[in-house]
Structures are given as structure tokens and as C-alpha cells.
Amino acid sequence: MTDRKGIILAGGSGTRLYPITHSLSKQLLPLYDKPMIYYPLSVLMLAGLREIAIITTPEDQDQFRRLLRDGSQWGMRFEYITQARPEGLAQAYILAEDFLGGAASTMVLGDNIFYGHDLPQLLKRAGSRPEGGTVFGYQVRDPERYGVVSFDREGTVLSIEEKPAKPRSNFAVTGIYVLDGSAPARARAVRPSERGELEITEVLTSYLSDGLLNVERMGRGFAWLDTGTHASLLDAGNFVRMIEERQNVKIGCPEEIAFSEGWIDEAALRTLSQLYLKTEYGQYLVRIADGG
């Protein structure tokens, strides 16, 4: 297994999606034909990561375990970590410190959806850097709603600001963070913001101060979708449906990725498909096993 490990931050209360998240974690909601968490999980799998920490609320953890199990069915290993209270994205690195054990990591937010032909190459290039951190910039119309990164032509970050009134660029920082093994220590040095949270921007700023922060730009061939509102949740589901029906491929299918990466064999894929044979999802897995 690679020395780099993965983190999915799937905690939080999901209050912006009430009442549908009143009794169910946002990351367990269906996004077209799969649970939402399958999509960030697939991002980490495409990056070649097989050891992943899944950070959840105490109340929701049993449901995540029931869905994802220990990961061995996909040739992976999952560790579950409880987040008692959501206190900022940087808190994830403190909670996952023992799991990481000094290893570098790639963290994906559990409600972010990414799609693009060259996504695996982009992730693996970022993960190949021996030190420092890498964020992914995505051009948006309303950068003031996000963390904003500005950079030079070589991809060296010039500034990073959280929800600036006057953004220095129109590139938002997406929910993927590729950081070296110093991330937990940097997170511990962060003081709570006015919102009472440990801001990920402060961790990234510490990398920037040391000249160790890079940016990878996601161009026109990539889609980055948030699911923070009822409308954007529906839009993301419709996007997945459109691509899957048009191209006859699945987005965010762990079984397919595990098989293509050689983590499971054909017999294991066929066994997994038996769970879903009454659905198009299961029939798709059979087609993959048949070489279709």
C-alpha cells in the first residue's frame, strides 16, 4: 500500500438540508443511484489510496459501518473516527493524527462531487510531491462565497483567503486537500476563528508561509459540484444521471474502481454484483466483469 492515506470528512449536522437530514447523515443521502459518500470515496480510490479514515458523528457511525463495512470487500481498509462536534475542517487532521501516523494524506469533503477524465492523473501528480501541500483551484462566478486562491503561472500560490470581500482571483479552493505529514501539527497550532472553528485556510496559510503550498487548476474538463442546498443536491444528482445515461458508465462506483486497479479479482466482483442484481447498478457490475 502507498504511504499516503486518505480521509473523508463526513461529519457535521447538515442543518442546511433539513428536514431530509434531520435523522440521516447528509453523506448517506442518495445522489442519483448511489449514496453520496461513494463519490468522495471514489476520488481517493482513483488517487490509488487504500487506507482511509472516515470521520463521522457518533450518531451516524453505525450507519456508515453498515454501508461501507471495513473496506476489505474492495481490497481496502477503513478506519472510523468519531467527531463529537464539528469544529472546522482543520479538526479532521487532529482527529486522524493517530491513524495517519506521520503519513501524508489526501482529504476529501464528504459532500463534494468531482468528475473529469484526467482526475486520477491530477491527484497522483499532487500526491507525488515529497513535501508541502496542494490544493485544487476551480473557476467560479462567485468566489466571495469560498476560500479563494491566487497563484502565478507556475502554480505557486500567492495568497489564500477565506470568503474575501474583494477576491484576488476567481478560483475557489475545492474540497480536496493533499498535505504532507506535518498537517496534524499545523492544525494543532491553529486558533479558533470568530466562528469558533479551526479553519482549513489557516493550515494552508502555514504551508504558504513556508513556501510549500501549490495549486492545481481544474480546467474546463472538470466538474466540481457542491451539495449544500436542496437545489444543488438535485442538480448534482441530475448531472450524474445525465453522464451515466449518455455514456453508459458509472460515476463513483467503488466496485468498478477496485476491479480496474487490481485490488479485487473477477470472482470478487461477481460476488459483489449479486447484492444488486435487481438493479441497473448490479447489472452494470456484471457487464464490467464480462469485459463490457
From TrEMBL:
<dbReference type="InterPro" id="IPR005835">
    <property type="entry name" value="NTP_transferase_dom"/>
</dbReference>
<keyword id="KW-0808">Transferase</keyword>
<dbReference type="Pfam" id="PF00483">
    <property type="entry name" value="NTP_transferase"/>
</dbReference>
<keyword id="KW-0460">Magnesium</keyword>
<dbReference type="InterPro" id="IPR005907">
    <property type="entry name" value="G1P_thy_trans_s"/>
</dbReference>
<dbReference type="GO" id="GO:0046872">
    <property type="term" value="F:metal ion binding"/>
</dbReference>
<protein>
    <recommendedName>
        <fullName>Glucose-1-phosphate thymidylyltransferase</fullName>
        <ecNumber>2.7.7.24</ecNumber>
    </recommendedName>
</protein>
<comment type="similarity">
    <text>Belongs to the glucose-1-phosphate thymidylyltransferase family.</text>
</comment>
<dbReference type="InterPro" id="IPR029044">
    <property type="entry name" value="Nucleotide-diphossugar_trans"/>
</dbReference>
<keyword id="KW-0548">Nucleotidyltransferase</keyword>
<dbReference type="GO" id="GO:0008879">
    <property type="term" value="F:glucose-1-phosphate thymidylyltransferase activity"/>
</dbReference>
<feature type="domain" description="Nucleotidyl transferase">
    <location>
        <begin position="5"/>
        <end position="240"/>
    </location>
</feature>
<comment type="function">
    <text>Catalyzes the formation of dTDP-glucose, from dTTP and glucose 1-phosphate, as well as its pyrophosphorolysis.</text>
</comment>
<keyword id="KW-0479">Metal-binding</keyword>
